[in-house]
Amino acid sequence: MSERPFTILCIASEPKGFPFIHECKRQGCRVLVLMTEEKQHEQWPWESIDEHFVMPNLSRQPDITYAVSYLMRGQKIDRIQPLDDYDVATAASLREHLRIPGMGESTARHFRDKLAMRVQAQDEGVLVPSFTAVFHYDDLRDFMARVPAPWVLKPRFEAGAIGIRKLYDSEQVWRALDELGDQQSFYLLEKFVPGDIYHVDSLIWDNQLVFAIASKYGLPPLTVSHSGGIFTTRVLPWDEAEATTLRQLTGELMQKLRLPRGVSHTEFIRGHEDGRFYFLETAARVGGANIDRMVQAATGIELWQEAARIELANLRRQPYNLPAYRREYAGLITCLSRQQHPDLSAYNDPEVVWRVPKPYHAGLIVASWEQPRIEQLLTSYVNRFTGDFLTSAPPKSGVRTNI
C-alpha cells in the first residue's frame, strides 16, 4: 500500500500566496484552501488546488474551529498555512486545537500583536520606540508626562499602517480613547520617531536566518496609507553598513521572537535625531504590496515558493537548502490611479521587468545590476507618476494597504 500524500490546508482571507500553493502541489501534496465567500470567485490557481471550502468569516470563533475540526473527520491534515496576515492568528489557534505542528498562539502573538512583539523585543534588549499599553490610566498619564508628543495610537492586530492615528497632546489621546470605548485595550500608544523606514524580507530555517534582503521605503507607509501619495521601495547596496546592520538585527530578532522557521517581513526606523535603528514591527508572512516580486527581480528568490519548500522539508524531516541567488538590485513604485486601466506603455526603459495589473493602480518594478540606476529611475518615475496617474483623493477608509 503506497503512502498517502501529505495534505496542506491553506487559510486565505485574500487571494495571494499562489507560488506557495503551486510548490506544494508540485511536490505531490494535496492542497486544500479555505477561503471567504467574498473571494471565492477570484482567479485562484485552481489547477493546483484539490479542494476548496468557503466560509463567511475565517477568523470568527468558534465557527472556524468547528469547520476545520469537521473537515478533519474525513481527512488528515498535516500542516496549516496562512496566506494573509489576518490569517496568522487563526492558523495558530487551529494548530493548537488540532495539535498540528507549527507556530502556536504564544509565538504568533510576537508576529501579529504589535504590543506583544514590542514587549518581547524590549525584554530581550532590542531597541524599540517608547510605548505603553492602553490598560491602566495612571500608566498612560505617566507615559505622556515622560515622553514628549507627538505619539501614535496603533491598533494591535491590524496590518501595516491601517488604523494608526498621530496625536499631538494628551487631550487628543483621551478623546480618541473615548471614541474607542471598550476597544481601547486593543491599542497601544507609542512615541512618534521621525526617521527613514526600512524593511528586511527573510527566510528562517532551524532558528537561523538563511536569507535576508534589506530595502528602504521612500515615503513612510503611514503617510501613503493616510494621505495618499506614491509608494516606493528599493533594495539597499548589499555590502554597505545599513544593509549589513539590518540583516544582523533581523537575525537576532527572529531568535528573540522565537521563530524557528518560515518567512518574515520586518520593519525598522532609523531615527533622524540619533541615527539608531529602532524595531517597528514584524510579521511571519511574505511582505505585501508586491514586495515579493521586487525581491525575486533582484535575487531570483521567490519567497512564497521557498516558504513552501521550508515547510515541506520540515514535514518530511529533510534538510532545507536555499537555492543560489543573485545579489542584484530592484525597485518598486505604485500608487492609486485616477484611471481604471492606466497606460504604462511610455515607461519603456529596459530595466522595467513587471507592471501592476490591478485596476485603479499604477505600478511597476525595475531591476538592474547597478543600485544607483534604480535610484535614478525611481526618482524620475515619482515625478512622472504624479502627473500621469496619481489621484488627488486619499485612500478610502478601510482600504487594506498593508505592507
Q: How much helical structure, as a percent, in the residues? A: 25-40%
| Strand residues, percent | 25-35%
Round the Cα radius of gyration to an integer and report it: 21 Å
Would you state the CATH class of the largest domain? Alpha Beta
Structural class given helices, strands, pairing?
alpha+beta
The low-confidence parts are 397-402
Per CATH, the architecture of the largest domain is: 2-Layer Sandwich
Ends distance: 47 Å
- Sheet with the most strands: spatial strand order: 13-12-9-10-11-14-16-15
Domain count, please report it.
3
Number of strands: 16
Shape: globular
Description:
The chain is of the alpha+beta class and 403 residues long. It folds into three domains: 7-107, Rossmann fold (3-Layer(aba) Sandwich), CATH 3.40.50; 130-191, ATP-grasp fold, A domain (Dna Ligase, domain 1); 195-388, 2-Layer Sandwich (D-amino Acid Aminotransferase, Chain A, domain 1), CATH 3.30.470.20. Helices cover 33% and strands 25% of the residues. The chain contains twelve helices and 16 strands. The chain has helices at residues 18-26, 63-74, 88-98, 105-109, 114-123, 137-146, 170-180, 221-227, 241-256, 291-299, 303-315, 371-388; strands at 7-12, 30-36, 51-55, 79-82, 131-133, 151-155, 165-167, 187-191, 195-205, 208-217, 231-235, 262-271, 277-283, 329-336, 352-355, 361-368. The strands form three sheets. An eight-stranded antiparallel beta sheet has the order 13-12-9-10-11-14-16-15, sandwiched between helices. A hairpin with a 5-residue loop joins strand 15 and strand 16 (361-368). Helix 1 (18-26) crosses helix 11 (303-315) and helix 2 (63-74) crosses helix 3. The radius of gyration is 21 Å and the shape is globular. It starts with 6 loop residues before the first strand and ends in a 15-residue tail after the last helix. The model is unreliable at 397-402 (pLDDT under 50).
